[in-house]
Amino acid sequence: MLEFFSLVVAIVALIIARKTFNQTATLRARLDAIEATALQAGAAPPPLAPLQEVEQGLAASPSVAAEQPATAGEMETAAPDAEAQDAAPTAATDGTATPPPLPQPQPGFEERIGTRWVVWVGGLTLALGGFFMVRYSIEAGLLGPGVRTILGGLFALALLAAGEWTRRKESVSAIEPLPIANIPAILTAAGTAVAFATVYAAYALYEFLAPATAFILLGMVALGTLAAALLHGPALAGLGIAAAFVTPLLVSSDKPDYWALYLYLAIVTAAAFGLARIRLWRWLAVTTIAFALIWTFPCLECGPSMVGPHAFHVIAGFVLAALLVVCGFMFGPAADDDRIEPISSGSLAAYLLGATLIVLQSFHADTAIIVFAILVAGTLLVAWRAPSATAAVGAAAALVFVVFAEWAVRGNPDMLVLPGGPLPGIGPAATDASVTVHLISAVIFAGGFGIAGFLAQGRSANAVIPVVWSAAAVFTPLALLIALYARIAHLDRSIPFAILAVLLAAAYGAATEILTKRDHRPGLPISIALFATGSLGALALALTFALEKGWLTIALALMSLGTAWISLQRPIPFLRSLAAILAGIVVLRIGYEPRIVGNAVGATPVFNWLLWGYGIPALSFWAGSHFLRRRADDAPLRVVESAAILFTVLLVFMEIRHTVNGGDIYRATAGLTEVALQVCATLAMAIGLERLRIRTGSIVHNVGAILLTAFAGIAAAAGLMVLENPLLWPIDVGGAFFNLLLLAYAGPPVLALLLSYAVAGRRAASYANTIAAAALILALTYVTFEIRRLYHGPVLSRGVTTGAEQYTYSIAWLVFGVVLLGIGILFNSQRARLASAVVIALTILKAFLIDMSTLTGVYRALSFMCLGLVLVAIGWLYQRILFRRQALPAAPVAEPGA
């Protein structure tokens, strides 16, 4: 192994020597080029005139010369300065500028290796050498524990002495230091790391030191590192802190003592935070926090029995961060006015996260919950005094919810307990005190966040700070109430929790009214909106807790309606957006479970849970959009209007599907009855939206009407004419006239005709004419299918078409065309007359293409005779009634002689 390292060192030395030779040759070539450029520019040695002028000037001023006699050395020094002063204008006069100074070349790869990396690696190697020597001595048993400890201490002292000696030698040198690695700092860092390891091993491994002695020695080493870093700079701080946090991994024991570990980490953290505070090294504070948090993870595997040392670790780190890191609090750096500082907030949030992990890993042990509560209270206190840590309040609220949500999800019925026994309807009896601790903690958290969030309003000129406080004040109590309800009441009906929700809504409402009457301050409108939202949210939860499952959808929809109404009484811009957000949440809720209450939707047609789950939200959104429209036509209004249309359409569709399929809304196929009802309902809703958009001018109503019309057209073309066509598939249509054909092919054309008149003159003519053409096709299809029903019975797809049937088709189409013509003449409707012309043209085509080839005997003759008579009658009607020519009056005859 030694020979291999020697070979590697030789190769590296050869490469470095070769690169150094090449770099020297390059620098020599550059110097030669610069000299050649100066000679070509005509640069000559400066003349001696400036020196003579200086002497003449001194002779002309005897008083000055007498007072300050110039020595030869001073004259020699002044001459070059004078030459430089005269050379500048001369160069400016001659038009030749002196070349600018050459930029300093950046250090190359080789220089970085030789001046920096080698030194850094060397220092790290020295530290690792000390660590591994201790480890090797432990494994091989070469030396006794006492000798090993002494040797480690001597090695640390040697490194520290070498670092101090090199530092002093550099300070004595008059040469300007080059940008190279700080060798004294590297050596000192290695010495402090070895000292940390030696003291820790003497205490934790060999038990040579009592806890008090170890604490004193580790504190001395930490303070020494702090003092040394003040002299040697960030290199020592970085390597020393890294080595200190890695030491417990390298110097380990079969029976770890977590109290000793966390005591050691607390001292290291204090030294690092102190150094970061004195030198204002933000990176050092962040690095220390990250290392301290990482050291929480591997020790969590020990289980609930080790809550004590873990709690000490997070409490010590939290206290040190509050004292030394948080800006504007105690000994922390100075803070900008009302500005949230990321490191100040992040340091507290990091240790809160550690406390959260301890709670979760210990299965919510009482000690862990108490420690977590203490840190949350400390976060509120620090953030109240130091606005720089306000963001930690939001993190604390989120972590509180995480703790209680995990507790609720992990809920065990055997652990349900209340301080005075179970309340009626709240759940079974308890056998453990865990719920008692959580209930007390929840009350403390809810009160702390709520009261602090309310009192924090108006204390800051930064709008973000009061908003963070109010958001935490609203979110935390609601989240805790939901978690307790899920754990204790198991999401069942619970009147006590409904009462708590009503009380919480009243508190939020009172806070909203009080804040509304205050003078305007930054962030106050958003905070008022948040408290108003909390009041509505608590009312929605009260409805959910008091009513059966599925009412959450209704409660949220009513909450959106209430928010829209409050936006009229209290014109807070955020309330409009909140109404839209709540509408979006309800939409997502039905996407998760369209039946609202699952299998409990019921089998009763119409009057089932779908009516309440979709009908009440639809009414709420229609009313909410009416309130919102009074203020403005903006994005929140359009969202609520879209939700109103969506729930109305879904209510109709879901009720149709539920009724037709016997309560099974998830049936894979749809029959003719369902498609027919959906087409009729869609056309009716499109007519309603067309009428409504005329009054409101809403783009949502406009687009909704178009989409519904398009859906009805697609459903009619694909469903009625193809997929569920009784002529193509064996479908039983029922009786003679009052049958399924009347619903599927007579209702839609009537509604489509009404829709075409509703859009006539308000949309493009082609749009209305297309709807009218679809109505005509469906009406003609109904006439045809009814005739086939008379000849073939309830299943239209069976049997052979006879001559009498073909003749009946022709006569029926002809009569249908005549009826349309009569309607067009009676009501002076050009559209009806054109439809009549289309039907009669189809009848003529049928007569010549089908009847002529299929009919025989009297049916063929009667078909053409009737068609001819009708055509003649139509021509007469057009000539005599519609386009009758008026007789021109005769011109008067001139009398003779006139």
From TrEMBL:
Keywords of this entry: Membrane, Transmembrane, Transmembrane helix
UniProt-listed Pfam families: DUF2339
PANTHER family listed in its UniProt record: BLL2549 PROTEIN
UniProt-recorded name of the protein: DUF2339 domain-containing protein
Source organism superkingdom: Bacteria
TM stretches of this protein: 117-134, 146-163, 183-203, 215-246, 258-275, 280-298, 310-331, 343-361, 367-384, 391-409, 435-455, 467-488, 494-511, 523-545, 551-568, 575-592, 604-623, 635-653, 665-687, 699-723, 735-760, 767-787, 807-827, 834-852, 858-878
Region annotation (Disordered) ranges: 59-108
Low complexity: bias regions: 77-97
UniProt keyword Transmembrane helix, yes or no: yes
InterPro entries given in the database record: DUF2339_TM, UCP035905_mem
